[in-house]
Amino acid sequence: MKYCMIEKLTPLPPTVKAGKFPNWNINNLYHRNCPVCNQDIPIPIVTRPDNFIVHRCSKCNMIYLADIPKPDEIYKFYTYYASFKGLKQASKFMNYLKLPKNKIASNKNFFIDILENTGGIKGCSVCDIGCSFGWFLELIRYKGGYPVGVELDNNARNILKKKGIPAFEEIDSNKKYDIICMFQLLEHLVNPSDLLKKVSSSLLEDGRVLISVTNAGEFAKIGYTWIGFRVDFEHVNYFDLHSLSNLLLKHGLIIEHFWEHNQPGVQRIIDIKKLENNIVNRSFKFVKSIIKGFLNNRQYIMQKGTFVLTVLARKI
Known about the structure:
Order of helices and strands: EEEEEHHHHHEHEHEEHEHEHEHHE
Number of helices: 12
Number of strands: 13
Oligomer: single chain
Structural class: alpha/beta
Distance between the termini: 33 Å
Largest sheet: 7 strands, mixed
Radius of gyration: 20 Å
């Protein structure tokens, strides 16, 4: 496949939250080798709207940023990542509107379904790395698993502990897990191989790993104008199925199955504001039904895509 280098992609409109630039110093960058094969033969493909250049490894075809912010700057950024992304723990009012927890947990959840159908959850120790406020770990606990969170954001860890979920800044190398999950995490790491080495050593025999990343397999179909280069500017790695499989194999992890799903989060902020304005003028009962219907319909629509790549792998 031929790659065409252009000067710079245009940014998305400011109404798209996913197009927010981190406040990184682009004038003092750290050069790194390919995060998959560790070779240093990058070919530039395109310049993102934030001025970072996307490269392709000429040996293994991994798509990544060869020049990134310094690792300590990236680490510091993730200690307040939830604030940057506008992530918040649900308010008491929104929690009241939700269905009872047992019904929430029994509703269809894509990742829960995968784990239930590939060995189960009940009685399993489950570690979610990059777990934020622990929405997924709450479902794991309801399903009879034993949840543990790993999260750099200190505020999120405090909230997890209030929920009774053990939370740590990094994975505990002295503890073994049946299942380790990483959702939208590997894209952000300076050296994802280092983490996967720890993950592999922390898995029990026949342990499962469930991983979701932004699906760079779309890039091969679309080319350099792929939306993945115009959203989520914290991303420094762009995995497709082949590059992710190669990296997992280096650490004794074999992919059993994969899924391509979901659409990019490019909804406009104004749409949400219109919804909120409509909601405040309705009765409580009607508001509840509107919110439930809106969320269910939106979830269904957003799942119909290929923007996210999810893989289930096992330790060999």
